[in-house]
Design brief:
Blueprint: E1 26-27, H1 39-46, H2 62-72, E2 79-82, H3 84-96, E3 103-106, H4 113-119, E4 124-127, E5 146-150, H5 162-170, E6 177-180, E7 201-206, E8 219-222, H6 225-238, H7 245-256, H8 258-281, E9 285-286, E10 293-297, H9 303-312, E11 315-316, E12 318-319, E13 330-333, H10 337-352
Parallel strand pairs: 1-11, 3-4, 3-5, 5-6, 6-7
Antiparallel strand pairs: 2-8, 7-8, 9-10, 10-13, 12-13
Helix pairs in contact: 1-7, 2-7, 3-6, 8-10
The chain binds 4'-deoxy-4'-aminopyridoxal-5'-phosphate.
């Protein structure tokens, strides 16, 4: 071993879902939105002047911060914007989780949390979900250095009612509590209504799912001005020009179109409920997902095998081989109604041969 190896920060990186580039495929593996972004986004893209790329973007992302603040009826100093909610969450870990006590998150959850914690040397404790893959509020009433929870949780899709989220915040007044609401628009009640009541609460959301903008990388945190200022201080100490000027412009167009947002969101919810019914009839078991994916298992089918057989038919879903408890489940993102009909037809045929 070379001497310099001792000083390398060694990390086990997060593994994102596959991004195959096939003309004809059904892509249900990364919880993207199957519908294109709002029409104003393509219009803005067409009219963009490349000459503006000569200049640095606005480091405060002012225009997009204002558009998000307007949408949620909060002040501009309550909004922090990042390059996807992954960037926002990484900044949050760096800014707020500096205690020697462990931060808490569920054992089955977004698999980036332990990666950031390991990378930043933050101690953590994984709190087991119950046998129905649900978060139990009582488990979060212990000493800790911070709490982070997705609501709905991923990859389970399970939603915690707002009063239970509030009970967790209430029990953890001495630390920062982060609610990662990447999937909240698909049927949950947001904790945004609690930000004026609790000065230790940060709510994180994204344009990647309900706003069809995963490729643009836009995420945001909403909290009180004090916590947002701490977050910006760290961001400006790391990289001041995080979001590019094209994305800022497109993001504004995406959030302005409330009608399109509601229309596509409602279509996904409708298709999700249709898919649940079909999967149930086929013998799959799953919780009552309130997200844009379903986390399902089948008593007669090995998940890994089904995952591979689906892939051969150019249908991509997500399979996690660990932890053991979820190794016989597939996470199926909700596509268009037509895509889900093709998916269900494949399953019907597949199961009929068993
Ligand atoms: N949080 C959760 C729970 C997620 O599933 C994802 C998507 N991988 C993210 C955050 C990050 O999404 P993005 O960076 O695209 O905003």
């Amino acid at each position: 071993m070379r001497k310099w190896e001792e000083n390398i920060r060694k990390v086990v990186p997060y593994v994102p879902g596959e991004q195959p580039n096939k003309e004809r495929m059904i892509k249900l593996n990364t919880n993207e939105n199957p519908y294109p972004p709002a029409p104003g986004v393509s219009e803005a893209l067409k009219n963009m002047d490349p000459a503006r790329l000569r200049l640095y973007p606005d480091p405060t992302v002012g225009k997009l911060v204002s558009a998000i603040a307007d949408f949620y009826q909060v002040n501009k100093d309550q909004v922090f914007v990042g390059v996807g909610s992954d960037d926002v969450l990484a900044m949050i870990f760096m800014t707020f989780f500096n205690s020697k006590k462990p931060i808490l998150f569920p054992d089955i959850t977004y698999s980036f949390y332990d990666v950031w914690a390991d990378m930043l040397r933050i101690p953590y404790e994984r709190i087991p979900l119950n046998e129905n893959f649900q978060i139990c509020v009582e488990d979060y009433k212990r000493e800790n250095g911070g709490v982070i929870l997705p609501n709905p949780n991923a990859p389970t899709g399970e939603l915690l009612p707002l009063d239970e989220i509030e009970a967790i915040i209430q029990a953890n007044q001495d630390v920062i509590v982060v609610i990662d609401e990447a999937y909240i628009d698909f049927g949950g009640e947001s904790a945004l209504s609690l930000i004026d009541k609790y000065d230790n609460l940060i709510v994180v959301q994204t344009f990647s799912k309900s706003r069809s903008m995963a490729g643009s990388r836009i995420g945001y945190a909403i909290s009180n001005p004090v916590l947002i200022k701490y977050l910006n201080d760290v961001k400006y100490s790391f990289n001041s020009y995080t979001m590019d000027s094209v994305t800022i412009e497109l993001g504004c167009k995406a959030i302005e179109d409330k009608e399109y947002f509601e229309m596509t969101r409602n279509k996904i919810i409708e298709t999700r409920e249709w898919t649940k019914k079909e999967l149930k009839d086929l013998g799959f078991a799953f919780g009552d997902s309130m997200s844009n994916f379903i986390f399902a298992t089948h008593p007669k089918v090995e998940a890994k095998q089904l995952f591979e057989d689906l892939k051969k038919a150019d249908i991509y879903v997500r399979y996690f081989k660990s932890p053991e408890r979820i190794s016989n489940y597939l996470r199926i993102s909700i596509g268009t109604q037509e895509e889900m009909e093709t998916f269900v037809a494949f399953l019907k045929e597949y199961l009929s041969k068993m």
